[in-house]
Amino acid sequence: MTQQPAVVPVPTQSGRADGSQPSRRSARRRMFYIALGFLAPALVLLGALVLYPIIYTVIRSFYSPGGEEFVGFDNYVTMFTNETTFTAIRNNVIWVIVAPVTCTVLGLIFAVLLDKIRWATAFKLIIFMPMAISMLAAGVIFRTMFQENPNLGVVNAALVAINSVFSDDSAYPGATVRPDAGLQDDGGTISAPGVNPGSVQNFPLVGVKQSSLPANAAEAKEAPDPDSDAISGTVWLDVVQGGGGENGEVGDGKKGLPGIKVDAVNADGTIAGTAETNDAGQYTIAGLDGQGYVVALPASNFDQGYQGVSWLSSAFINGVVILSYVWIWAGFAMIMIASGLSAMDRSLQEAARIDGASEWKVFTRITAPLLSPVIVVVFVTLIINVLKIFDLVYVIPPGTSKPAANVIAVEMWTVSFGGGDNQGLGSALAILLLILVLPSMIINIRRFRQERER
């Protein structure tokens, strides 16, 4: 009996051995399940870390501070009728207007100019280096730099040093009269009442370090006898370095105090005459025709002098905090724009130069338009960043200036965890911050999609 060969089913064009047509719906369902399996871990993380907190915060914003009572929109009403919230929103507007624009412009300038110098990489590294510092550390640095005391703050120390170069004012902070000299010290003004013309009135002072005396201070000398219409005297440091000398007497080793203003004051408080001590501390007030003058050393002689600017006060604190942000993030803008500049077709610039275009026209007509996609991304990213600014505003301002520098993120933390203990109002502020950030995020996402489709 002849054995028949086995018949092997041949797959049809549809892919099935039995020749039946597969269901497109089942194929799509299978692909969907496969994709869902791969995406499931990411979706779980997004739901737990992003979606759930947003939903919970929205719900929590409709409840009382402790979360026991539903209060509706009361927290939102409170938020928009609270003066501190208005200050925070105003400061956020200032941040959005100033900080991103400044960082983007500086980044563009650095990227274009440093592209033309020899040591561009080293300069870019220096400018970008603040990005490696945490915001908290940067805040501590800037708070120390802008301290009002010039002995602590480097900025005011530099201003005081510059002022001392261009100013001839002599000041002796802390100086006072020797207790047994028979003179009065009234609120810093040292005076001798009842002095008549033709007499000598001396002022032995203490409380000044020898090292603090001006370079032109010479050996103190007794003032010559004055004319009948004048009063003279000597103002000196009544201390001898190393010890010695007689208290209240001009002698060897005692220095005169130059540049001290001396006034002769009438009984009605008007100034009849004034003089300034020379290098030996001598003075003479002439042209006096009355009797019983008060010879006074005004308190301005003994103040601290120019001590710089109160940078951390309410008037300047926002500028200092924004400056610290620009110091950090200008490097980020520079690197991003420089990367776009390196990918740009340079032949267009060269062609424009060959046609006689100036560097300014090359920059405004070719370079800037070609860099506009990168510039927009950098600008929008910085807007999102400044809307959420917290660290610098929390660290840099001292206690008295914190209300003036307040922003939404700091206000949200303060009312929730910084003593306010109002989780409902804090949640409402968080939703406000989210609403403000969303438009910028949408713009950035659309920009990324447009770049991908090109």
TrEMBL record:
Q: Which CDD domains match?
A: TM_PBP2 (cd06261)
Biological process (GO) annotations held by this record are: transmembrane transport
User: What is the recorded membrane topology of this protein?
Assistant: Multi-pass membrane protein
Q: Which SUPFAM superfamilies match?
A: Hypothetical protein PA1324 (SSF117074), MalF N-terminal region-like (SSF160964), MetI-like (SSF161098)
Question: Do you know which Pfam families this protein is assigned to?
Answer: BPD_transp_1
Span of domain ABC transmembrane type-1: 89-444
Q: What cellular component terms from Gene Ontology apply here?
A: plasma membrane
Matching InterPro entries: MetI-like, MetI-like_sf, UgpAE/MalFG_permease
Which superkingdom? Bacteria
Which region ranges are annotated with the description Disordered?
1-24
Keyword Magnesium recorded: no
What are the TM regions of this chain, as residue ranges?
A: 31-55, 93-113, 125-146, 315-341, 362-384, 425-445
Q: Which family does it belong to?
A: Belongs to the binding-protein-dependent transport system permease family.
PANTHER family, alphabetized: BLL4140 PROTEIN, DIACETYLCHITOBIOSE UPTAKE SYSTEM PERMEASE PROTEIN DASB
In Swiss-Prot or TrEMBL terms, this protein is called ABC transporter permease
Q: What species is given as this protein's source?
A: Homoserinimonas hongtaonis
